[in-house]
Design goal:
By secondary structure, this protein is an alpha+beta fold. It contains one helix and eight strands, in the order αββββββββ.
């Protein structure tokens, strides 16, 4: 009887240890980034216009009005202009801004912009499109 009890104990001990280890690992790895608390005002970026044409009579200039709002005192704004150019601007306060970009050194075509802010209540993203005319 003693032999059978020892055998059962030593056979079940590794199973118990493995389950304990898996539970501990799952508990630790399950503590990823926490979402903002419910009382945090979400960060919002809004770009206008969402689509426009860049024409030769205006030197292929595109213009946007960008509104940033949220609870953060500052945000990092990152913009890709679709032609290889980008803007990385930390310390942008909530408000309304105007941005220009020339598409004069690229071929006619469609260029997609991505506007992203990171900070308290973020990130958030908006998109726009420029049609560069011949």
């Amino acid at each position: 009887m003693y032999h059978k009890l020892c055998k059962t104990f030593f056979l079940s001990l590794p199973i118990v240890l493995v389950l304990t280890l898996l539970l501990a690992i799952g508990h630790v790895s399950g503590q990823g980034p926490q979402p903002p608390s419910p009382n945090v005002i979400p960060a919002v970026i809004s770009v206008s216009p969402h689509s426009q044409s860049a024409v030769s009579s205006n030197n292929y200039l595109a213009r946007w009005t960008v509104s940033i709002s949220g609870e953060g005192s500052t945000y990092t704004l990152y913009v890709t202009f679709g032609d290889g150019g980008y803007l990385n601007r930390p310390g942008v306060q909530p408000g309304t801004y105007h941005y220009n970009w020339y598409y004069d050194n690229v071929s006619p075509g469609t260029y997609y912009q991505t506007w992203t802010i990171n900070g308290v209540g973020g990130p958030d993203q908006d998109n726009s499109t420029v049609y560069r005319q011949p």
